[in-house]
Structures are given as structure tokens and as C-alpha cells.
Amino acid sequence: MEKQIIECVPNFSEGRDMNVINQITNEIKAVKGVRLLDVDPGEATNRTVVTFVGAPENVVEAAFRSAKKAAQLIDMRQHHGAHPRMGATDVLPLIPVAGITLDECAALARKLAERMAKELCIPCYCYEAAAFTPERKNLAVCREGEYEALVEKLTTQGKQPDYLPEAFSAEIMNGPTASPLADSIRRSGCTAVGARDFLIAVNYNLNTTSTRRANAIAFDVREKGRPVREGHPITGKIVRDADGNPLMKPGTLKATKAIGWFIDEYGIAQVSMNMTNLNVTPLHVAFDEVCRCAQNRGIRVTGTEIVGLIPKRTLIDAGKYFLKKQNRSTGIPEADIINIAIKSMGLDDLKPFNPREKVIEYLLEDGDNASANKLIRLTAKDFAEETSRESPAPGGGTIAAYMGALGAALGTMVANLSSHKAGWDERCPEFSVWADKGQALMTELLQLVDEDTEAFNAIMAAFGLPKKTEADKAARSEAIQQATLRAAQVPLRTMKASLKVFEICRAMAAEGNPNSVTDAGVGALAARAAVLGAGLNVRINAASLKDRDSADALIAEANILAQQADVAEKDVMEIVNSKL
Predict the structure, then answer these.
(1) Distance of CA 67 to CAs 89, 313, 483, Å?
(2) What is d(CA 569, CA 101) in angstroms, rounded to the nearest whole number?
(3) Which candidate, 50, 54, 48, places its Cα nearest to that of 7?
(4) For a surface tag, which of 126, 142, 408, 510 has the fewest beta carbons within 10 Å of its beta carbon?
């Protein structure tokens, strides 16, 4: 299952006092599982834009804590800056990155806004995807009048925020004696809490120095397009509607904004684009369209510059898109897919492009200290040596998962060799599907390599719990049973995943490149060892469970899976032997 990751980009109404800014960002850094990616203060705007990512529940907690601290430190009655604002925490958007939808982020945003109003007494508007009414999707509508219109909006029906403090009434804002609640609200102002799609800022490099031509390409593609003119398309009179507004000819790319400009640093013109909905217009689609429109004007796109960070799926989708255009298998390792994306779109045209520094998921992964200890990060030699040591983990369950991963890898290898075999070009899509399945299984089983060891370590940790009192003993016993149940469930998942490997190996033995039939056979043997080996771990851990109904059910299921693996392995080996 894909790990859920969201991004949060709150804007705080303080851009000059680093002591205040640091206290706010320290609240974010204190939340486990959250990675602070960027802090961008602006003196003229008196505003700081902060970016952090992590699991949804952790990010929401960090957002709440930072808003709480901002309300304590920033007094909006004294605030002045060039940027529109209405609160100490002015805007607080949640953005889906991986494994979560925009609608789910919107639901989280509404709960966060409700909590902020209830616990922090900060009135909150919900905007963009979290808005309750169509007009409030527009942030400008929510922030109309800015902080100076605070009292009017709080006391006027139809203008009030979506969530108000429980004890709020319009009278307290206009009463002769300021109440503590009114004083708190005047100090903090309002916050707009919302959910929006991930926005990518990207520049397309052109082999020209002409800003006018870069602009022309931008107008060709951006959703807004260009004004309709009478006669000459550039110098002709702009056509207007009955209200005097220019009539626009839309561009070819939805959910994009673009202009052309010249960059002194590089000595080239670029099409600079903001992409506001990657589900509507993915990066690779925009790249191809900019290339097409540039070529129509005698210009070539030489590369692409990503500004800021991107979700991994952006590069994965692009890499697979270009592989399919080449009639190549998409079932190759993730790093190879991303490299295809980098080279296809020229992401390294102006300077080196390092995915570990630009992809949000990799930054989170590299920032997780625990990830440094994962077994799957070891070399093959180090993994074998770690297994050989006197410590009980990694053990048989971990090795079984790794055997399953190797079986999936071998089946996938045969699929990829078959997809690229001379004379079999028309069969590439067929083998690519098998390779994709194999990569997914390999990834799942590699995750189970570490999960199995983590499950065993959890049992050891439970045995180490205190047992001085009866309450201690009861808690320790329950913890041991829960950890033991997990230690039986994880290898059962290994069995189920490894059993799926036979389907790939059988298909490749029967239909794949005949020169690699023995590789498919070895893959099946590895899969059988994985299923039977994981089954042993199910049985030994289930034996320690007090809940015998659950234990018997686990063992019965494991026995059935082991029998199915025996049959499947014999079936594959009969095909292999018939071709030798």
C-alpha cells in the first residue's frame, strides 16, 4: 500500500523577526514524522512561507501547533506589510502528494479549521477544495477587505467565517467592553484553511533569446490563451464583449498559467509555467505540447527547469509515458524510470538534476533516521553477513521475503528481456504488463523484508517491558500477544505475495524469451522457498498465541498456501524442463 504523504504550506504574517519565525517553525520540527523543507521570509511583505511534509495526521498536528504559536506571538493589530493578509496564520493549505486524494485532504482541512476555532478561538474560512460554497473556493473572496474588515465580516451574516469559536457572538466584537475572546480574535485575526492540488513551477528552456517569441509560445499553451484581435493577430484591435472585456482564445493546456521571459543567468528565453492540477495536465503532456508549439515557430525546447520540489509520481508518470512512446517495457526499476524522465525532458540541461534533492518522497525517506538501518539498503554481501551474526534477526522470515523478491525479480527480468527481443516488437505491451506486475510484487516483498525483522524486534521489546506489578504484568502479556500476532501475520502476507510470483514465472516460462526459460524456473523455485519458509514462521509464531481460534485460522491458511505453492512450482518446472 502506498504511503500517504501530504504537504502543508502555511503563510505566517511575520517576515522580519527571525526569533518569532524560529519559534513557529520549531513547533513544526517538534512533531515526529514531519519534515520541514523550506522557510522563506519576506521583509517587504512581512510574511513567511513555510513548507513541510509528512503523514497526514502528523502534518495536521504540526499545522495546528504552528498556528497556535503564531497566534501567541503575532499581534495583527500591529501588522503592516505589502502582501494581503487577514490573520497571524493567514492561509493554511493541505496538498496531496502521495497515497491520498484531494477530497481526503479537504476533509482534513475542514476538521483542522473546526479544531482551530474550537481550541484556539481562531475564526476560520475554508477555501479551494475545502470550501463549503462555490464562491469561497477563491481565496480572494475569503480574504476580501483583509484584516481591516475583520469586525465587519465577523458581525455580518453571509460574510462570517465557516468556523467560529463556540462562545462567539456578534455583540462581543462591538460591545463597549472588550471581552477576552474579542481581544484574542482581534489579535489573531482569521485563517483560511484549505486543500489544493500540488502546484509545479516549471520553466521550459528555448534555443532563442526572444522574449516575444517565448511569450507567443506561452500564449499558445496556457489555459487563458490570448486576446482575439481583428485582422493582424499581433497588432490588430482587441475584440471585446458587451461588457468591454477582451475576448480570449483559450490555449491548449488546461490548468496552466504561462508567460515568456529572458534569463540573464543562462542567456536564454524560457516559457515559465505554473501547473495547478497535475491530474488534468501532467508535466510530460505539457512538455510535449510546449515542444510542439515551439517547433511550429521554428524554436526548439532544449530542456526543462523544475523550480522547487515535485511529487515522485510526476517523474514516474513521465518516465513511463516516454518509455511507451519508445515501445519499451515500463516494468523496470524506479530509478531507471526516473532517469528516462530526466533525460527525455532535459531536466539536467542547465544544471545537474538530483532526484534525492528534488523529489518530496526521497527527501522524507532520506530524512528518516530509521531508514538508514533498513536491511534492504544493505549490499548483498552486508545482508548475508548481517544474517550470519549471532543476533536472532534477521531470520528465516526475512530471508523468505527476500527469496520471494528475488523470484519476482527473475520473472520480471524475463518479461523485460522478452519485451526487447528483436522481432517481438509487437509483443512489447504484453510483456510490459507482466513486468509491471513483477515490479509491484518485488517492491511489496522488499518492504516485507524489513517488516518481518521489525515484527520480531517488537516481540523482543514487549518481553522487555516492566513486570513489577500486576498491572505491569497484564500490560506486558497483552503487548507480547499483540506483537506475536503481528509476527505471524507478516509472514502470512509474504506467503500470499510470493504465491503471486508463480503466475509471472509460469507465463514467462511458457511465452517469454526461450533463452531465459531457466531464469523463470529459478524464479519459481525461489518463490516456493519463500512461501514454505514464511509458512514455517507463521506456524512457530501462531503456536505462542493464547487465542487458539486465531492461531488455528492462521496455520490453516498457511497450510493451504504452502500446498498451492507446491502445485504451482511443479507446473512451472514441467514447462521449463519441456523446453530444455
Answers:
(1) 6, 30, 37
(2) 40
(3) 54
(4) 510
Instruction: Sort 534 into a burial class: Cβ within 10 Å, 0-12 / 13-18 / 19+.
Output: buried
Question: Does 83 qualify as catalytic in the annotation?
Answer: yes
Known catalytic residue at 80: no
Helical H segments across 131-246, by residue range? 139-142, 150-154, 170-174, 180-188, 211-221
Q: Are strands 89-98 and 191-195 parallel, antiparallel or unpaired?
A: parallel
pLDDT in tens, 49-61: 999 999 999 999 9
Give yes or no for a contact between 159 and 49, defined as CB atoms under 8 angstroms apart: no
Burial class (CB in 10 A: 0-12, 13-18, 19+), 401: buried
**CA 7/CA 53 separation, integer angstroms:** 4
AA letter at 443: T
What residue has cell string 501475520? 489
Q: Which of 88, 87, 105 is nearest to 96 (CA)?
A: 105
- How far the first Cα of the chain sits from its last, in Å, is 39
Provide the phi-psi class of 515: left if phi over 0, else alpha when psi is between -120 and 50, else beta: alpha
Q: What share of the chain is helix, strand, coil (3-state, %, to 5)?
A: 55, 15, 30
Who's near 104: CB < 8 A, 6+ residues apart?
Answer: 56, 96
- Angstrom CA distances, 302 to 263, 291, 317, 485, stand at 14, 9, 21, 56
Q: Please name the residue that has the C-alpha cell 509555467.
A: 273
Count other C-beta atoms under 10 Å from residue 418's C-beta.
25
For residues 115 and 169, what is the distance between their CA atoms, to the nearest angstrom?
A: 18
Alpha-carbon Rg for the chain, nearest whole angstrom, is: 29
- Of the residues 17, 75, 79, 83, only one is catalytic, namely 83
Q: At what angle do helices 334-345 and 283-296 cross, to 10 degrees?
A: 20
Q: Which of 18, 92, 22 is nearest to 59 (CA)?
A: 92
- C-alpha 536/C-alpha 554 separation (Å) is 11
122 has pLDDT over 80: yes
Query: Per-residue pLDDT for 178 more than 70?
Result: no
pTM score: 0.83
